[in-house]
Amino acid sequence: MNMEKYPSRLLENAVNEFSKLPGIGRKSALRLVLHLLRREKDEVLAFGQSLIQLRNDIKHCKMCHNISDTEICQICSNPARNNSVICVVENIRDVMLIENTHQYNGLYHVLGGIISPMDGIGPSDLEINSLVERTGNNEVVEIILALPTTMEGDTTNFYIFRKLKEKPVRVTTLARGLAVGDDLEYTDEITLGRSLVNRVLYESSLGK
Description:
Shape: elongated
Order of helices and strands: HHHEEEHEHEHEHEH
Helix content: 25-40%
Number of strands: 7
Largest sheet: 5 strands, mixed
């Protein structure tokens, strides 16, 4: 129960909304709200409008499910990208991390999560079937599994590997420069880049 007393109901409402953001407690939320109150009205309106426009106008790429301003994202529509290789990631943030390594020039496939029975997330909740469909394109020769080295990530890797086993594609995974239990988010760009460049066949990694 919230026992804090605010001088304004409007202030309290704003703090309540900010505190819903991940990693933002009520004290941090109050600091952010008070900061906005000190800014010029035009700045705050622009801030709010950017969030509204983001929510209303953002799209998901029809090919890879990355966020985009258009129906097909800039990566998928770039003719300079290698469309024979698809890197499978958990979320949009992972695409950004791998792009920052400058070690990869292929395409992506964003699953939108990983298999986690404890959280009620099964294969049908993820973009796995659309990945399998993409491998029907004769141009695709390699699928890179770049999921977290966690139990859930390994389960998802294995599920995808089984789904692709009869497909004429090479399934690889990141080299184990990543510590077990790591998310890509917490891996530095150099380590991630090396793990990507030195990737190995997924099947050979199963015995390790």
